[in-house]
Prior knowledge:
The protein is α+β, with helices and mostly antiparallel strands. The chain has 2 domains: about 10-170 and about 365-375, NADH Oxidase; about 185-355, NADH Oxidase (3-Layer(aba) Sandwich). About 35% of the residues lie in helices and about 15% in strands. It is built from 10 helices and 11 strands. Strands 1-5-6-4-3 form a 5-stranded antiparallel sheet, with helices on one face. A 4-stranded antiparallel sheet has the order 8-9-11-10, sandwiched between helices. Helix 2 (about 60-65) crosses helix 3. About 45% of the residues are buried. The protein binds flavin mononucleotide. InterPro entries: Nitroreductase-like, TAT_signal. This is Twin-arginine translocation pathway signal protein.
Amino acid sequence: MTVPSLSRRSFVAGGLAALVDLSAFGQPSTRPDTASPPPLPDIGGEGPWDYWASGQGAGVVRIAAAAILSASPYDTQPWLFRLRSTHIEVLADKNRNLGELDPFRRELYMGLGCAIENACVAAPAQGFNPVVRLLPESPAGNDNLAAAIELRPARQAKHPYHDAIARRHTNRLPYDTDRKIDQATLDALAGLASSADVQVIFLEATSPGGTVFTDLMMQATQLIIDTPDLREGRWAGLRAIAANPSALSAEALQRADANWLKATRTVACATAAAFGLIMVRGTRQDHRLHIEAGRLWQRIHLDGTNRDLAMQPMNHFVEVIDHETRTLETSRTSSTIRAALQQDWNGWEPIFGFRLGYAGAMAPRSPRRPLSSIVVT
Ligand SMILES: Cc1cc2nc3c(=O)[nH]c(=O)nc-3n(C[C@H](O)[C@H](O)[C@H](O)COP(=O)(O)O)c2cc1C
C-alpha cells in the first residue's frame, strides 16, 4: 500500500529541526524498499526493554520496538502495527479499553499518541524522517487507523530523546518535597506543545490551584472506588496487566483500591513539586486531540527524563470529568478546576493530569506484550 499524497496541513512533522546529526552515520538512507526486515521479537515482559536497550532490530522493526515502550493507560498497550518498508500504520486495539472509566476512549487514543511519538523519536536513527498523518481514514468511518507514519529517507541522525526511551518510566515513588522545579524548566516543558489546540499548564503543588488539584484528585479517587461502572473500568485495567487475571479475587482488587486511595493522598499528592494539566481546545470526544495530547505527554516525559525529572500521570479527576460529561452533559469537576486556573480557558477541556518532581530512585520497568503479537499484516 502506498501512502496517498498528503496536504501540508494534515501533517504533523517529526521534529527534524531538533535532531542531532551523527557524523558517524553521515549519509542519507539508501535503504531499498524491498529490504526484508529482521524477525519480530517474541519475548514479552521486560524482554522488549532489553531488546531496545541492546540496540537490536533495524528499520521499521526497531521503530516499532520503540513505539511499544511508550506509556499507555493502565499499561493496556491498546495498539496494533502494520509494518511496511516505507511506512508504519498504527491501529487501535479497541478491545483493550477501560469501559466506563474511559467512555470517550480518550485515554486509549492518548496511549496511541504516546506510541506514535516514540516511533517518531526512534525513526531518524534508522535513517528516516517520519511524517505523521493522523486518522487518515476518518471521518469516512475507520478510526481504528490512528495514524500512518510515512518514513522518508533522510540523513541518519539521533533524536535528542532517543536514549531517554529506555529510561522513561512512570514514577510512583515519593518525590523530594524540598526540591522545587524552576520556572525555566516548566517553561521549557510548556514550550513542547506543537499544536495550537493542545497546551500544557503547570500548578505549583502548594499554590491555591495545586490545592484544588489535590482536593479534586482525592474526591475523584473515592468516587471511582465507590461507583460500580467506574470501578469496573479500573479493575479491567488491573486485570489487563495481571500475570494471572483470573487469580485476582474481589478481595485482592479491593485491597488494591484501598492502597491506591492511600498512595494518592500520602505519596502522589503529598510529595509532588508541581502538577501539570494538558488542555485541548475543542470537544473531549475528539480522537485527533487525544492523539496529539498523547504525543505531547510522551514528549514531556522523554524531555523530563533527560532532565532527571520524575513524572506520574494522575487522571482520576479527568476520568470523573468524562463520566460527568457522559452522564450529565456537563461537568462540575471541570468547572471547579477551570475556576482555579489563572487564565480563562473558556472553550478548552482538561484532558490529562500528572505530577512531577525529583525522586531519589528510578522507577521500575513495566511489562510489555511481545512485538510479534501486535504486528498485523
Ligand atoms: C492516557 C494515560 C493515562 C494514565 N493515567 C495514569 C494514572 O491516572 N495514574 C498512574 O499512576 N498512571 C497513569 N498512566 C501511566 C500508565 O499506567 C503507564 O504508562 C503504564 O503502566 C506503562 O508504564 P510506563 O509509563 O512506566 O512505561 C497513564 C498513562 C496514559 C498514557
